[in-house]
From TrEMBL:
Pfam families: HNH_5
Protein name per UniProt: HNH endonuclease 5 domain-containing protein
Domain HNH endonuclease: residue ranges: 14-56
Source organism of this protein record: Thioclava marina
InterPro entries: HNH_5 (IPR029471), HNH_nuc (IPR003615)
Phylogenetic lineage: Bacteria, Pseudomonadati, Pseudomonadota, Alphaproteobacteria, Rhodobacterales
Length: 299
């Protein structure tokens, strides 16, 4: 069964704030990391607050990018999309620079400690023209300087006149700094809560202390309380997939969330039991195919 077209929801109340509202399409696993499972059960206000709040840095979180990177070229499009805006460090002689990776997969311009300027190669000619122009060079001098730049050997300083000295840096690999904010525990908690809601259907609106507390944690963006409900681990996975599983009541309802196969979160719902067989959602990130399987139906 392919379910990526979106699941129907038969109520008009938001599952988080419980208010009657125009419900909006919610990506249960954030779309920014390739999630495709959707359901219209969040109001616009809750949806936007989550998106601009604890979900905002999900794509760029170091553990997310490292987990995606383990799968090499098999999910290269998604892996590369996660890196846009990430910080990279590069060394030039005794100088280091950090810059964000742009959409065109190039690190932006940056000034080094010695006040020299690093410019992406395809923007260098434009920069040389404007610097020389500002220093009063004639068109002929500028054209001749551009020619000298084009012919300059790599890793060698060349004086273009008017105080402009260039160096064509080559073989200067950039390395991710991985100093972006860590993944918020509210992300796996939200995924697990929404999956439980899918299983419960209309029963999610019944008065229940545990569900009410999870709603409060999500609404208040209370990361410490979210942390207390989650056990984080690393799994070995050979295939890249996103997954969510209701694992049964042990004795509390337990949901496992897996991102990129290896990032594993076990979410506990204290004092909550759900009378249903274990049920698993998987999304193969190579083929884009997703499915929900119930253990009861399979046996
Ligand atoms: Zn709401």
């Amino acid at each position: 069964m392919t379910i990526s077209s979106g699941l129907n929801w038969n109520d008009t109340r938001c599952i988080v704030c419980m208010q009657e509202a125009d419900l909006s399409i919610e990506h249960i696993i954030p779309r920014s990391i390739g999630g495709i499972l959707t359901c219209s059960f969040l109001c616009k206000s809750c949806n936007e607050r989550f998106g601009a709040g604890f979900e905002a840095d999900t794509r760029i979180a170091p553990e997310i990018r490292k987990a995606a990177g383990q799968h090499g070229e098999s999910i290269s499009d998604l892996r590369d999309r996660l890196e846009v805006g990430a910080r990279y460090k590069q060394s030039f002689g005794d100088n280091d620079r950090t810059a964000e990776l742009r959409k065109d997969r190039v690190l932006g311009a940056a000034k080094l400690k010695d006040s020299s300027l690093i410019v992406p190669e395809k923007e260098a000619e434009q920069k040389i023209r404007s610097m020389l122009g500002k220093s009063g060079a004639s068109d002929r001098e500028i054209n001749s300087a551009v020619k000298s730049w084009e012919e300059a050997p790599p890793n060698t300083e060349v004086d273009l006149g008017h105080g402009v000295v260039i160096k064509k840096w080559q073989n200067h690999p950039a390395h991710p700094t991985y100093d972006e904010p860590a993944l918020s525990p509210l992300v796996p908690l939200k995924i697990a809560f929404e999956f439980v809601s899918l299983i419960l259907g209309g029963a999610v609106y019944q008065r229940n202390h545990t569900l009410q507390e999870v709603r409060r944690i999500l609404t208040d963006q209370d990361e410490a309380s979210a942390d207390a409900l989650i056990e984080v681990g690393l799994a070995t996975a050979t295939a890249p997939f996103h997954g969510i599983a209701f694992q049964g009541n042990r004795p509390n309802a337990q949901v496992q969330v897996r991102l990129f196969g290896t990032l594993r979160f076990i979410v506990e719902f204290p004092s909550l039991g759900i009378k249903t067989a274990p049920i698993t959602y998987t999304h193969d990130l190579r083929t884009g195919v997703d499915e929900i399987r119930s253990r009861a139906r399979a046996s």
